[in-house]
Amino acid sequence: MAFIQREIVVHARAETVWDALRDIGAIHTRLAPGFVTDVQLEEGGEARVVTFGSGFSVRELIIDVSDAARRVAWTVVGSPLFTHHSASAQVFPVGPHSCRFVWTADFLPHAMAPSAIATMDQFLAVMKVTLERTERENNSAHPSV
Fold first, then answer.
1. What fold characterizes domain 2-139?
2. Per-residue pLDDT reduced to its tens digit, 12-31
């Protein structure tokens, strides 16, 4: 099974990043707008269909949203690309105004690794810009923060 772990430092409070990550139906507006163009929640929030800018969609079952660990875990189901895919993303405070975002994925077939790495890296780049902009906007709206 292939394993990928990507980490990125985001210059935003861990609370800001966690609030966006835990909002599992808003990836397309709060984490990676444009890269993800739509998210449809299903089954009372237990599953979502994520549509990417390329038009490709995946269905993900939400395994866990843990406020205590600031972690979301999910698995892709019914994909023609993966025979197995599970992933999680977690937020760790680094300082008062920055955090580390860690995304791991386990999947089969191994041959999907280059594509998965490219997708994760592109997503993280858009996410970093989006969350840092959100943090700046929040700080300018509330200068005492």
1. Alpha-D-Glucose-1,6-Bisphosphate; Chain A, domain 4 (3.30.530)
2. 999 999 999 999 999 999 99
- Could you state, in order of their start, the residue ranges of all structural domains in the chain? 2-139
Tokens, residue 43 = 């089954």
Q: What is the pLDDT of residues 48-98, one digit of tens each?
A: 999 999 999 999 999 999 999 999 999 999 999 899 999 999 999 999 999
